[in-house]
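Input record (Table S2, row 342):
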Amino acid sequence: MAETKFTPRVFSGIQPSGGLTLGNYLGAIKRFVDMQGPEFETIYCMVDLHAITVWQDPAALTRNTRELCAGFIAAGIDPEQSILFNQSQVPEHAQLGWIFNCVARMGWMQRMTQWKDKAGKNQQNASLGLFAYPSLMAADILIYHATHVPVGEDQKQHLELTRDIAIKFNNDFGVDFFPITEPVIEGAATRVMSLRDGTKKMSKSDPSDMSRINMTDDADAIALKIRKARTDPDPLPDTLEGLEDRPEARNLVNIYAALADISPEQVIAEHAGQQFGTFKPSLADLAVAKLSPISTEMARLMDDPAEIDRILARGAARAREIAAPILRQTYEIAGMVGAVSA
Ligand code: TYM
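Output record (tryptophanyl-5'AMP complex):
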């Protein structure tokens, strides 16, 4: 497909299903900030319709959506330059999601590891929305004809499915309408791991708060969690290969690299031979220096929820200007009366 046909446009989303973690920040938001600029139109979304695929307390969902918006802005997303909004204010996502439910195959959905992980052993009791989740995600992206999607490693399979849905739609209808989106999974922190277990992803749903750094943690909490992070007794090696079977050590090096905007190789070059008793305090200082201004700004923004709501409403109106014509053309391609002219 001719790349040039589509405006270079970035879309990505985060679920407002709990607080923001360091994983969300380093794997997603910080990279969203980096992609703002003249090269791309950037669209960032709080995906509340995705969040409710598992039960959300309504008051908590409202608060988490506003707090996530505050997090985006505090981390450097400019709501004038980027389009920033919550998904449910742009109904075209769900409308295109339905079309894609009719394009995607049951077998494709059943293969999704996130479905298997989240539904667990009790698939019969999981919501239908949780099963269909990846087709709504494809709609989030393709309703804007987005060409690039920055995400953490855990979303890779969903982005492959998005490409499959675009290809099947284009083939089924004999059109060249939806772009084949590029996943952008880059940097040192595409998979930030739990501070308690280097083989598990850092996640807002982990029962142990010590396993993660929350973007709302204060300096003492950040320093404590890093000091208590699980490690091994060996000093840092002098090459990255020396970290191969040391997932906890590798994770802390990756976090350092991503926070400092340097490569893991540079971290090793600067800290080779150090014991964790020395490295952890440096990492804690760096984390506090980078994260505290963000959490302070988030708290300040949260003092004015009406302003956050205005930003989201304005973002949604701008998003609809792009989404509505694409939905209309999709309906036209599918032959829906009202979209097709006589
Ligand atoms: P969600 O809300 O689970 O996570 C949001 C983003 O944060 C990244 N992330 C991580 N990156 C590195 N290390 C971690 N430990 C870590 N934890 C989370 C995720 O990879 C993601 O980029 N399905 C998506 C939301 C979504 C979406 C979309 C994303 C809905 N529609 C369209 C992109 C495009 C999700 O559940 O992300």
